Each structure stands twice: as C-alpha cells, then as structure tokens.
Amino acid sequence: MAFSTATVTTAPYGSWKSPITSDDVSGATKDLGGTTIDGRGRLIWLEFRPTESGRGVLVLEPENNGGEAVDITPKEFGVRTLAQEYGGGAFTVSGDVVFFANYNDQRLYKQSISSLDVPPVPLTPDYGGPLVSYADGRLDARFNRFISVREDRRESSLNPPTTIVSIALGSKDLQEPEVLVSGSDFYAFPRLDSKSERITWIQWNHPSMPWDKTELWVGYISENGEIYKRVCIAGNDPSRVESPTEPKWSLDGELFFVTDKENGFWNIHKWIEFENKVVSVYSLEAEFTRPLWTYGMNSYEFVESSKQKNLIACSYRQHGKSYLGIIDVQGSKLTVIDFPCTDINNITSGNDCLYVEGASEVLPSSVAKVTFDDDKSKAVDFNIIWSSSPDSLKYSSYISKPEFIEFPTEVPGQNAYAYFYPPSNPDFQASKEEKPPLLLKSHGGPTQETRGILNLSVQYWTSRGWAVVDVNYGGSTGYGRVYRERLLRQWGIVDVNDCCSCATYLVDSGKVDKERLCIMGGSAGGYTTLAVLAFRDTFQAGASLYGIADLNLLRAETHKFESHYVENLVGDDKDMYERSPINHVDNFSCPIIIFQGLEDKVVPPDQARKIYQAVKEKGVPVALVEYEGEQHGFRKAENIKFTLEQEMVFFARLIGHFDVADDITPIKIDNFDD
To answer: Which CATH architecture has domain 9-20+400-656?
Structure first.
C-alpha cells in the first residue's frame, strides 16, 4: 500500500508511525452475536456495530455473490438481551420468522424476514421498562408457543428468579408467560426434540458457576403441553463433579451433550434413553466447548454424508489451537478437516455446508462457508461470508504473528501459556542496542481464554514498536478442568504470579526491556492488573479497565450470575480483605490509568473511584476516565478509540522514553501534571 516505503527508518520502539489507526480499531471492528439459517437456507447473523453505539443488528446474507447484505432489524430496534448481564442467545429463526430480544425494553418480538416493511410485533408484556429479559429461546410448533429462559428483575435486580417459560403465540392479547421449569438458580439450553414430546435443559445453583457443576435434565411433555415427568441425565452423582452443557437432539431423537466427567475435558457424549445410561461419543484430551458466559453457544452440529447419517461436525481446542472435525458416531472415529482457521467458536449447519465462526493469526473474526465432499472427509470450498474487520487485510505487511509460548510458573514443574507478538512494521526498525517495551494483557473472566488471532487492537501496539503478550494464566479455559481449577481459592495469587513469570521469562529471553514493562486488563483482568501493582514490583505501569479493587464490595454489589463466583475464587472474608488491592494502597508505586463505564452492573463505578482516590492520595501518578452510557465493556466507537489512545500516550509519557507518532492530546495525570 502507499504508506509503505522502500526506506527503513531507525527510530525508538514505541515511536513508529503506523497506518493502523485508532479509528480502524474502534470503528471498523464489529462483534458477532451468533449465526443461524432461515427456512430457505440463507445465513443470518447478528453483528454489534461500534459506530452505532454497539447496536445489535440482524443481517441477511446477499441473494447473489457480490450482492449487498440486507439489514433485517429496523433502525429503532437493537437485538440484545441482558439476561445474566452478559446476554447471548438473543435471537432465533424458524422458517420465515425471526424471534428476537429488543435491547431498549428487553421484550421479545417476532418479525417476518420476507416482509421487512412490516414492523416487528411484541410477544411479551410491557412492564414499563427493561425489567424482564429473555434468552436462548426456541419455537415449539406443536403447541404454537415460544420456549425461553427468562430473568425477571421486577422484584429484585440483585437476585432475580430465572425460569424456563412458554410464551403463547396464537393469542391476540399479550399474556403473562407460563413458567414450565423453576426452582434452580439458573437455566440454559432449553431444547425440544423434533416432535416436541421431550425437552432438555441445563440447570445449576449457587455457589457453582456453570463450568464448575451443572445438571442435565429431560422433561416429558404431556398432550396439554405440561412437563409431567423429569429425569436427571448427568450431574447428579455426588461422587463425581461434572459440568454438562450444550444438549442437543438429533433428528432421530437421540440426546447428545458435552461434559467433562471422564477425563476432565469437555467431550461429546450421548444418552441411551432406554437404559438411562450416558456413553462417550469420542474421548480426547481437548475441549469441545467453551465456558458458559453467554447463552447461545453452538459448538457442534449433526451432518449427513452420502454413506451414513450419524456424523457430527464439531470444533475442539487443544494446546492453544482450534480444530474442525467430523465424528463418526457409530465408529467412534474423528476426522480432522484441513481448515485455515486456528480459532473456532460456533458452527451452524447450512444446506450441504457449514457456517463456521473462525479466525487465525492472519484472519480476523469471520464467518466462513465450508463445503465438504460427499463423504464429509475433507473441505472442498472455503468462502468468507462475513468479517469483523474487512479492511484489516490491507495491513498484512504490518501484521505481527503470535508465537505460542509455554513458560515456567513459580510452581516447580508447572507451566502456563501465552501468545507473544513482537514489534512489526516494515517501515521502521530500532537500534540494535534497544529492546522493546512490553504490554502484557491479562484476560477477563477470569475463567476465560485468550486466543492468538488477528486483532487490530493488538496490532495497533505492535505496529508502533511495542511487544505484546497475551497470557492464559492458570485458571484459564482451553486446557481442561485441572488447569481451570488452579485458580480456585487462588485468585490474586496464581494469576498474579503467572503474569509476572511470563514477563520475567520474556526479559530473560532477551525479547523485551525489563525497565519498560506495562500490564493492562479489563474486568477480572483489571483486578489482576491492580493486584500485580499492589503485591509485586515486576511492572512499571498499568491500565485497569472496569477492574476490581475491592473484592468484598464486588461480592455485595455485583449481579446474581457472579454473586458467589468470587467466593470460589478467593475464599473467606479474611482472604477477600488480604487480596483486595484497595487495602494495600501503600504498596502502589507505579503509575496507573483507570477506565470505567458508569452504567456497569458487573463491576460498579465505586470500584474505580475508590482505587483512583486512594492512589491519588498516596501521591502516585494516576488518571481516571469515566464514560456515560457504557456498561461492562465499552461498545461505543468513540470510547474504544479514546481508551486505546490514552493508554498508549499514558505509558509513553510515564515510562516509555519516547514520543508517540500520533497526534494525541493527553488527559491530565494527577501527581504528574500538577
């Protein structure tokens, strides 16, 4: 491209000029909220647009190659549910009709795809505000009703009851949904068999999270639509801890699901109904699903070949990489498909094809249409249907490809994992004597996993001369239950140690400058950032995005879904106090910048304000940025842009020893600009 020149300029790391702008990162990168197909086999996806304040829009694929995709969602609507705060599963399609949750009022609506000039029709009552949320729904054609998970905040926003309800579709007057299943704290995946004679679901109770311990149930439906008999299929054995998830009925009426009861990895299993027995479909030390943070996950699909029907298309995660596979259920055989994506999320079955949500080190988050041969043994065609950042490919010469690293932790013989991105810019180089500054990213969750894919928010740093490392500390997912449970009662210890060990490993390897080590993270990653700065002296500066400073305050104020999570991760009141950064402000000596959304119900704004005020009074350089209208995670393009720019200029001014090439007006830093 025109930006690149034949001359390579020698300049300090961090000061390089890059064509990857903050506008590219904030405005061009869309998030995906799921995919499905309509009755004609056309792909429909949900995309969240930062340029429209994060509004969720359902989009229909073009009629012809090269044509324009069509927005289904009218401009006055936005598709997003607030169930469990993190949402997901906000829409489903049956034939020509799309059912969706509208963001502003949280009501359910239905809309005809073929008559987009007709406005969506509400299906649930108006409660005078967004007080009741619905998610993970499915049409029940037998009884002309819609089955959905419901979170009802009319009586309490901190402890709202969650149930599985049915919403009548035939009545002219809107009716109060009827409760079908209740009694547990949480529900997910209500799924009907093809005849609507049986329904399956997942349920769990405090203090467990859905990756700790869940139960899988099947209910038998009577002639009048009631559930007259219930059977627990998995998760009720007191001698065995497991977390079944993603149940799904095959067309033949067999129930499949994913659980980790045998080898500590989430593998696909099948229920033998007449024996009430569960058998493994295929056993592998790999994860065939992800933690249930949001509704609507779909990690496998049933497919047919020219020779046999009992095939499952699936994705699994092993040693930091995703794979696409076809399982022969009858022969218990896995065929790995040659596929360019190294990161895979959801899979949707189309007409003689699969739609796969995937990415790689050179491909941003995308939806790919994959066509197989008749035997379903190899992919014969691969086309990108949707891209989160279609313009990113024009920066290919600037892209830093991640190196998967395994580094020793403080526990002898125990390793952790990360993705290391070296500085990369064809127009610049640093002097041979200089080593680059490091930005270490600590992911959220903390029961989550970072993945080594093309992300412009990382490339923004590396193309300017920064090294970036994204750490999967002990407690991260993707490596089995044993690795995941390293963090139980150890949050604020294992994650802190692993992040420091990773930075030290990179310093000792000669890859980064030990005097310019920075750490940043959002949510749980923000807590790790604050804890690292409070309890260790490895890093020279940090950035916390909606991070946790006071664990006891979090436990008292956070939403229902995570209200007992912190107890599992930390322990009793004494542990909470000792591991809360707010109680160790005297240990802070490094500059820190804090970003916070003022409508955040997961980590309320008091957390940011308390640590900001305490660090300010200590005399340490600190800055606080608050955003009106933002919740947990920033969705508006202008705020994503501002956060990225201010992080970079903050680090450059405080510890970088260089001037950034971009024209950024820095905000005031207390105890530095005074």
So the answer is: 3-Layer(aba) Sandwich (3.40)
